[in-house]
Specification:
alpha/beta; TniB; 2 domains; P-loop_NTPase; five-stranded parallel sheet; 292 residues; elongated; TniB family NTP-binding protein
């Protein structure tokens, strides 16, 4: 029993119902080819020689497709392996303006931000922190949030990205939607400073089927589900619309239902019973109509 599971997952079959469900729902790293390639490129950026014109990366793709998980995996691995923190992750705040942008950086560096909207003072504070902390990589998650302000503010943000490489030897990594790609490639100067790491929607191909096999091996169900079987795989792909976050959410929900019901396997019928609504259809879903 459980021969289809990874060795470290199999013992969970003997755990309580609550423990198994908690394990199924726990966040997990999905080490697919694109994710491993991105981690490798980030490590190369971390080990680069000092330079006055540092290059950065863009990790661009649709929402719910694993971009943030890649960045967090890289940052955590660096923290575990290094005595000093050289990688910092900035959660770019929603809201237009430089005060929001600088506030995001100060928050990431664990510095007091106060209520001041004096952007000049915030910029000086950031420079002082960079001098002391000497970061090598600054990762801006949801960077498209910084591109929704006035054009002069956006240009100041882009100038900031150019300056931190020249002045502090920092490589910026920008994570976000396609708007990030558009803004960076609007001028040759910015385009020459950033390499694109695309995180596109998944296609229905062998890599997608391999992803389903790896998910099945990581979920403690005592019976084989054969997630990569044509009929079941097609249904998961249709509902997920090729977004890895949605793929994992669907399989996780179906696995929890299989444990609770005692079925111990995922089938197309059990996936259909979830009544899962794809992201693109949620705005017009029957559930929304019932809220009116």
């Amino acid at each position: 029993m459980g021969d289809h599971l990874l060795d470290h997952v199999r013992p969970y079959l003997d755990r309580s119902l609550e423990d198994r469900i908690a394990y199924i729902r726990a966040p997990r790293w999905i080490g697919h080819h694109g994710a491993k390639q991105a981690i490798e490129r980030l490590n190369e950026l971390l080990s680069r020689s000092p330079g006055l014109r540092t290059r950065g990366l863009m990790l661009v793709g649709p929402y719910a497709n694993g971009k943030t998980m890649i960045a967090e995996r890289f940052a955590v691995a660096h923290l575990k392996a290094s005595e000093s923190q050289r990688v910092w992750v900035v959660q770019t705040r929603e809201g237009a303006g430089l005060a929001h942008f600088y506030g995001s950086i100060l928050s990431a560096l664990r510095a007091p931000t106060g209520n001041s909207r004096d952007v000049g003072r915030k910029a000086e504070q950031i420079d002082h922190l960079f001098d002391g902390l000497k970061p090598k990589i600054l990762i801006f998650d949801e960077f498209h949030n910084a591109l929704r302000g006035r054009s002069r503010d956006v240009e100041t943000v882009l100038a900031f990205l150019r300056r931190i490489g020249r002045q502090f030897d920092i490589s910026p990594v920008l994570i976000g939607e396609v708007a990030v790609y558009d803004f960076i490639n609007a001028t040759d100067e910015m385009a020459s400073r950033f390499e694109l790491l695309a995180v596109p929607r998944w296609r229905y191909d062998e890599e997608f089927l391999a992803l389903l096999d790896s998910l099945e091996a990581a979920l403690p169900l005592s019976r084989r589900s054969d997630l990569s079987d044509e009929t079941l795989a097609r249904e998961i792909f249709r509902l997920s619309e090729g977004l890895i976050g949605e793929i994992v959410a669907i399989v996780t929900a179906a696995a929890v239902a299989a444990v609770k019901s005692g079925a111990e396997r995922i089938t197309k019928a059990s996936v259909d019973e979830l009544d899962y609504v794809p992201v693109s259809r949620r705005r017009g879903a029957r559930l929304r109509d019932g809220l009116l």
